[in-house]
Design goal:
The protein has helices at 16-26, 81-93, 129-133; strands at residues 9-13, 30-35, 39-43, 51-55, 73-78, 98-103, 107-113, 119-125, 142-143. With 146 residues, it is of the alpha+beta class.
């Protein structure tokens, strides 16, 4: 068996409409479908869906930060730092708190949380020759000034 790529990610949320607004109106994903008022599906434009959210109700507990499970979802926004700077300004204009900004050599990233605390990494890729020459360069976390 050979995996050809990641198809999509489904995140659990408390309030479907509040989270749909975040992913659609703030992050810019296209809402493509809803299912039984329990799920919303989003596409970045090239797949039928890349991300979905599943309502688990308003009283769902937050996951323990040190428990096993998903750490974050990474969404590519382009290939240059200017796009990352624009994204940072856009997020701040929408009142989204920036959790962190990092240079990973192979990519540069902004980390935010959705309304339920799910961590989303927004990133731009650096020159692919960096990781082609040295695959271990992916394990880099340096400060980044935007």
């Amino acid at each position: 068996m050979k995996i050809q790529g990641v198809g999509h990610v489904v995140l659990k949320v408390r309030d479907l409409d509040r989270s749909a607004e975040f992913y659609r109106d703030v992050l810019g994903l296209k809402e493509v479908a809803r299912y039984q008022n329990r799920m919303v599906f989003f596409s970045a434009g090239q797949n039928h869906h890349d991300l979905a959210i599943l309502s688990v109700g308003p009283n769902a507990p937050a996951p323990d930060p040190v428990s096993v499970g998903l750490y974050h979802v990474a969404l590519k926004i382009g290939d240059n730092l200017d796009l990352l700077r624009e994204a940072k300004a856009h997020l701040e204009a929408h009142g989204v708190k920036i959790r962190g900004v990092s240079d990973h050599r192979v990519s540069q990233s902004i980390y935010v949380e959705d309304p339920d605390g799910n961590v989303v990494e927004l990133f731009v890729d650096a020159d692919p020759a960096l990781w082609a020459r040295d695959p271990s360069s992916v394990a880099t976390v340096l400060p980044l000034q935007l």
